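Exercise 7.
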Amino acid sequence: MERFEQDEDAFSIVDQSEIMEAMSGVTNTMSLMIRTNRVFLSGNPHIDKV
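Solution. The predicted structure, written as tokens, is:
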């Protein structure tokens, strides 16, 4: 607190479980996007498959 001139909003403390929870959300979102993209590409004959 002394280093930040008593400004409690100048920094934050993050627990590892909070980081893991956030990463889990990102992973789930990316997985959903990949699955949706695969379904879209496989069902559309006008798009060249990669």
